């Protein structure tokens, strides 16, 4: 039972299980399948791998819960996702849905130092924005809005605006 480095996919499963268990106290394979949009056979394989690592309590056709180690690992993934999503929304002014998608892709690669710095930068910038009545942040977002289309990245929609 080791919690060696998890693949992005297994981290996504832990995150999904965490959210389902938070809402329902336990998860079923069908809940996980629905949330992640994957086949039940994929869920079964992932649950077996997570159970082997001591991260979930799993038996076929039974409910799934997180072990203490699994909960800690899942909370770390959820935290990384939240820091990134919040930075994208609060500082970069991205649409919440696009920010959530971007955070989901990046949460697996962002180290602790990067996440801490992004969180500090967001706190600093949002605090500064309040002091100058939001002018700095509003100016930055307007700058982004004007330049998103000029970058040839599909206009504001492609940039999360």
Question: What does this 3D model show about the protein?
Answer:
Strand 1 (56-57) and strand 2 (65-66) form a beta hairpin. The chain is elongated and about 55 Å long. 68% of the residues lie in helices and 2% in strands. The chain has two domains: 8-66, Winged helix-like DNA-binding domain superfamily/Winged helix DNA-binding domain (Arc Repressor Mutant, subunit A); 78-158. It has 161 residues and is mainly α. The protein has helices at residues 8-24, 29-36, 40-52, 68-90, 96-106, 112-131, 135-148, 155-158, and strands at residues 56-57, 65-66. It has a two-stranded antiparallel ribbon. Residues 151-161 have low confidence and may be disordered. The protein contains eight helices and two strands. The termini are far apart.
Q: Give the overall form.
A: elongated
How many strand elements?
Answer: 2
Radius of gyration: 19 Å
Our count of helices gives 8
Strand order of the largest sheet: 1-2
What is the percent of helical residues?
55-70%
**What's the number of structural domains?**
2
H-E string: HHHEEHHHHH
Distance between the termini: 44 Å
- Please outline the major beta sheet: 2 strands, antiparallel
Mean pLDDT: 83
User: Low-confidence spans: pLDDT under 50, at least 5 residues?
Assistant: 151-161
* Content of β-strand: under 5%
Q: Which structural class best describes the helix and strand composition?
A: mainly alpha
Quick structural overview:
The protein has 161 residues and is mainly alpha-helical.
């Amino acid at each position: 039972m080791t919690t060696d480095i998890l693949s992005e996919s297994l981290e996504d499963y832990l995150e999904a299980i965490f959210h389902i268990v938070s809402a329902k106290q336990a998860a079923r394979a069908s809940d996980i399948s629905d949330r992640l949009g994957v086949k039940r056979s994929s869920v079964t394989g992932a649950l077996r791998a997570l159970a082997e690592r001591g991260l979930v309590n799993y038996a076929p056709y039974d409910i799934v819960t997180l072990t203490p180690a699994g909960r800690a690992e899942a909370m770390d993934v959820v935290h990384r996702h939240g820091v990134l999503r919040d930075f994208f929304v609060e500082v970069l002014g991205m649409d919440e849905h696009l920010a959530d998608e971007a955070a989901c892709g990046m949460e697996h690669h962002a180290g602790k130092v990067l996440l801490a710095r992004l969180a500090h930068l967001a706190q600093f910038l949002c605090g500064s924005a309040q002091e100058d009545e939001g002018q700095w942040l509003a100016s930055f977002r307007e700058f982004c809005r004007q330049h998103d289309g000029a970058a040839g990245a599909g206009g504001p929609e492609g940039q999360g605006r």
